[in-house]
Specification:
By secondary structure, the chain is an alpha/beta fold. The protein is built from 13 helices and twelve strands. Helix 3 runs antiparallel to helix 4 and helix 7 packs parallel to helix 8.
């Protein structure tokens, strides 16, 4: 039986839904906003999180959307209902935001159906959760320096990192990072080109010295053209993909079979396709690690939950939210993170669960 088949027929009763705005000022000064989606029915509440990066799309959902989801469904029937539901008041800021929002509603429905059934997702799928390895994702400032890593390592000497490339990286910096031996992944950000995100211009010389020097790290999202392909030719087994992965088809049609991919549930959107993608990667021997979208609520525990089931030993960029602070506090949970599934539903335990 497929993973999705194990949950597709779960009964789901929805009486009402509501939204809650979440916000947090990030170290660089801008405010991250998300929307908590609450579905209620049968005396239970299911939660998901819409992680769109456009503030206006959040406002329109919370203030101007007008639709009802009340009814009795299965998980599969609810997914089909979403196909017919106007989840956006106007076209979203980016086409893939339809997937981000879709995941918010589908994850909330799954959480509610499991709670109504009195089982957890791990039990429903028959998968044992394992301690979750996580890395800390960060930039190195401008101009780039290893000092941000040194400050973090003073508090947490065993910390591992996923780093964002910038134009100011130099061969000397790459050598210093290699000597530190704490970098598990370098995100080249070669596939971002939008108002929300943009990466550094593809520089074959920079690609080459990063890949050659930091020889144990995954190389994520390169922009591949004739020159950068040559620069990375000896490192194809370390190239991994993130921003372009929305489905099994996206993985199957990559320029070459990947060794590893970054699984972001919100990029895939549909629960059925997410589970199919996990199965495809396992069947093809493709390794996985997980990524978040700066979730502020239940969405962070949900990506941790999935990572603890499907790729607990990967370079999972799903650290607890306090690690996003500019100056870290002492006493934070360290990697590996002990699984903490709630007795029922699709999220971590909360006091009283």
């Amino acid at each position: 039986m497929s993973l999705y088949a194990k949950v597709a027929d779960l009964p789901l009763e929805i009486d009402e839904h509501s939204f809650e705005s979440l916000a947090q000022v990030v170290p660089s000064g801008w405010t991250r906003k998300t929307t908590l989606i609450r579905l209620r029915g049968g005396g239970e509440e299911g939660q998901g999180e819409d992680v769109i990066w456009n503030d206006e799309d959040h406002r329109l959902l919370e203030e101007e959307s007008d639709f009802s989801l009340a009814g009795t469904y299965t998980i599969e029937e609810f997914s089909r209902r979403l196909d017919e539901t106007p989840l956006f008041v106007k076209p979203p800021g980016r086409p893939d935001y339809t997937l981000y929002r879709r995941w918010g509603f589908e994850s909330a429905a799954l959480d509610l159906a499991l709670r109504q059934a009195g089982v957890s997702l791990a039990d429903a799928l028959g998968i044992e959760m394992r301690p979750l390895t996580f890395v800390i994702s960060t930039g190195l400032g401008e101009p780039a320096s290893i000092e941000p890593l040194r400050r973090r390592l003073e508090l947490y000497p065993n910390m591992r990192f996923k780093l964002d490339l910038s134009e100011s990286w130099t061969p000397a910096l790459a050598a210093a990072l290699a000597e530190m031996g704490t970098v598990d992944c370098v995100d080249l950000k070669g596939l971002y080109d939008s108002d929300d995100f943009s990466g550094p211009p593809a520089n074959p010389e920079q690609y080459r010295f990063v890949a050659d020097t930091i020889g144990d790290a995954w190389i994520e999202d390169p922009y591949l053209d004739e020159t950068t392909r040559d620069a990375l030719a000896e490192h194809y087994d370390r190239i991994t993909w993130d921003a372009n992965i929305h489905s099994v088809a996206d993985i199957a049609t990559l320029p070459f079979k990947p060794t590893c991919v970054n699984m972001k549930p919100s990029r895939i959107g549909f629960l059925s396709e997410l589970f199919r993608t996990y199965e495809y990667c396992n069947g093809q021997g493709i390794r996985m690690y997980g990524g978040g979208q700066f979730e502020l609520g239940v969405g962070r525990s949900q990506v941790q939950y999935l990572a603890a089931m499907f790729h607990p030993d990967g370079a999972n960029d799903v650290a607890p939210l306090p690690y996003n602070e500019h100056e870290l506090a002492a006493g934070l949970p360290t990697s590996p993170l002990a699984p903490a599934p709630a007795p029922t539903g699709f999220r971590w335990s909360e006091p009283g669960d």
